[in-house]
Amino acid sequence: MHITASVFINDAESGLHADFAQWLERMAPHEPKSAYRHNVGEDNADAHIKRQIFGRETVVAITDGRLHFGPWERIFYGEFDGRRRKRVLVKILGD
Fold it and tell me: Could you report the per-residue pLDDT of 41-55, keeping only the tens digit for each?
């Protein structure tokens, strides 16, 4: 529940996560900080953009009390600006 953090579902594979990190840094590099208008008082404009790419929430189906995932899927928390304490909110809707 923070504007620079993301929750997403994908494969639990370290190479893929490294690829994500490299791709995100190419799309929204942290440096030069002067490239962003948001960086007045804070220098986390890149984190806002990275979060926007990955999204702020995800929906997960639960069937018979179990997460309805493919064999390699997991839920991940992406933190793009680690300077503040964060919290995660989980809401369960349905029967």
Answer: 788 999 999 999 999
